[in-house]
Amino acid sequence: MFKRFSKKKEDTSESDAKKKANLIKIDKPIDIIPSSITIPDEKKLDEEQIKKYNIILKYFQNPDLRIPNSEKQIKENISNTDENSAPLTEIEKAWITRECICRYLRATKWVVDDCKDRIAGSIAWRREFGISHFGEENGDSITPDSVAIENESGKNVIMGYENDARPILYLKPGRQNTKTSHRQVQHLVFMLERVIDFMPPGQDSLALLIDFKEYPDVPKVQGNSKIPPIGVGKEVLHILQTHYPERLGKALLTNIPWLAWTFLKLIHPFIDPLTREKLVFDEPFSKYVPLDQLDTLYGGDLDFTYKHDVYWPSLNDLAKQKRVHYLERFQKFGGVIGLSELDLRGDHDELMFPVDA
């Protein structure tokens, strides 16, 4: 179960003048990792894992394969028809990368049939949820405009990279500005997709920095809460664990009020053990994030001010550029299932991980 830790007293010996001199003013996302951060080496697959990987790869390479258009069809084992299913699109093929298959295999403990169902289920969910086209420019129904109101208060911010080059998504429930609705879930998924866009070559997980602090500059809205209803919490947890497996590298939580601890205890039974291991409570963020990548609110050097009319278009323009780069390289390297995200996100000329046709 979760344990609450008392915060250690921070060292205040450094002069305010020196701190001020180190500040980096910023109002837009950081899109390049600094040279001081090193991406950890990938863990190699053993012979048995390679064999299972190849089974999954060949299954989704089948040109006759049809995927249901809703997650419910897979859960209830409803037979595919021309009306309720479709072949993989080119963009869905770009989504089924070498690393994607490995993430789902690890999440299903290398059980091949479970992995097939989980990947198919996520494709079906993405179609139904409105994010299967890889961005608004390709046809996604969840767009920057459709969720923009949710981020006007700066409650979710993508900014900086932690020690292992994971892009950071700040979640600030205390800046909640809208009533509880399905659009809030759409907004969170939209931000998850954007933080994935910001992943550098060789890193396929993200870091969450969750701050429950109250912000008096955000007006209270009747029907809103910084602690979501248990039903919404379970839905978000299902989405994260089922459709973004192995994407969470670290989740740091701070300023946790009594009510949030109660909520965490309520959803504790629904959190899988692997996710629990990645949760860190009330420890200094600077232990996990370089100071030049961390907001001053948490002891870092980034003097960040959220200006919606500046940050929001910049975030979406940068993310679009990264998606265009990814898809151009997908076509360059053959447009096939199983290409590596290292090749798709990189800028080298030669294919590092050829795909076995």
From TrEMBL:
Catalytic activity: a 1,2-diacyl-sn-glycero-3-phospho-(1D-myo-inositol)(in) = a 1,2-diacyl-sn-glycero-3-phospho-(1D-myo-inositol)(out)
Classification via SMART domains: CRAL_TRIO_N (SM01100), SEC14 (SM00516)
Residue intervals of the CRAL-TRIO domain: 146-306
Any single GO BP term: phospholipid biosynthetic process
CDD domains for the chain: SEC14
Pfam family, one: CRAL_TRIO_N
Family matches, as Gene3D superfamilies: CRAL-TRIO lipid binding domain
UniProt KW keywords: Endoplasmic reticulum, Microsome
GO terms assigned for molecular function: phosphatidylinositol transfer activity; sterol binding
InterPro entries (alphabetical): CRAL-TRIO_dom (IPR001251), CRAL-TRIO_dom_sf (IPR036865), CRAL/TRIO_N_dom (IPR011074), CRAL/TRIO_N_dom_sf (IPR036273), PI_Transfer_CRAL-TRIO (IPR052578)
Main location group: other
GO-annotated cellular components: cell periphery
Subcellular location: Microsome
The name this protein goes by in its record: SEC14 homolog 3
Organism: Maudiozyma saulgeensis
Lineage: Eukaryota, Fungi, Dikarya, Ascomycota, Saccharomycotina
